[in-house]
């Protein structure tokens, strides 16, 4: 059984081809700069040199077609025929309240995803485009939706309801949903293994920090609070999203600049965050480099981001009551040691003792690393996420009829014997 996992972001498409019988990744890669120009594919096959090809992808359909053609390419591919693919797992950012776990995609499911796409305007549209494009290329195989929001459906009412007119929730579903669920699921279960405990015995804060950023308070293995809200705009400072701000600011600026609702929404989602402060960067590598060279706005951007990350650790520790570990994951969380250092330093009083050398050496997306001292009461780990493996295992379990909720399902990565490929 060969499973193709697709993760369509706002300007990229990640993919992974997994051979279930051999339990190995056959190929993986990413098409970057989709829509924005100068796009290209990076295609990795174990034992071969990474293949890169520049190819303009004005939309996600073209990007997925490029992936499929690369997978069956005579020189660089790994499949003789596209029909070797048994099923496709699709990341879907927003599932609303309807979906609490992964599901087979049919017309009803796709319609439901379309109905809530306005809640994730940067992601659900490309997710939908990816599903439709893949269904067109592979119409005879099962397609499965894996929802970012599903993991957070365990949040209690007092965590997911906003102090707004209750009828807004009843009529329009205005509530906290949360995102990056598969990432939080994966790294929290890996953290439990590193702690030598069952997930049900752990209280963990997971911090997914990439272009999009979200944090999760996990008590006894399940999500009880998370930073993103009705949409992925709420919460931490992100690459282009503002995160938490005074809710009066949008109305104030709409009046001052004569902006429409659509225009202010675009500014908050696409022109704020790191880009808003620095004026030119979203990639934290650029921000870190220029801050080191004296760029004031880059320095301020790093300070704002780390300060807000620090506050979330304190907030979620209070919500959980006790804390076993903090986990950093995703591109910035795994590679951005200066941001981790600024976030953790000064937290000795609550039981987090940073080992600066361990933290500086933890700059890989292939190794799980402890970055606190051995005697730190609360451990901090850097754990590379593997959302595509979650996709794959959900898809296989659904096809085999063994799928259930994540606390009762036997994920391979939740075992002590798990070895990262």
Automatic annotation (TrEMBL):
Write out the pathway annotation from the protein's UniProt entry: Metabolic intermediate biosynthesis; acetyl-CoA biosynthesis; acetyl-CoA from acetate: step 1/2
Is Cell inner membrane among this UniProt entry's keywords? no
Task: List, alphabetically, the SUPFAM superfamilies matched.
Answer: Actin-like ATPase domain
Offer one example of a GO biological process linked to this entry.
acetyl-CoA biosynthetic process
Reactions this protein catalyses: acetate + ATP = acetyl phosphate + ADP
List, separated by semicolons, the cofactors it needs.
Answer: Mg(2+); Mn(2+)
How is its cofactor bound, per UniProt? Mg(2+). Can also accept Mn(2+).
Pfam families registered for this protein in UniProt = Acetate_kinase
Q: Which domain of life is it from?
A: Bacteria
Q: Where does Mg(2+) bind?
A: 7, 387
Q: Which PANTHER family match?
A: ACETATE KINASE (PTHR21060), ACETATE KINASE-RELATED (PTHR21060:SF15)
Outline the subunit composition.
Homodimer.
Query: What is the protein's given name?
Result: Acetate kinase
Gene encoding this chain?
Answer: ackA
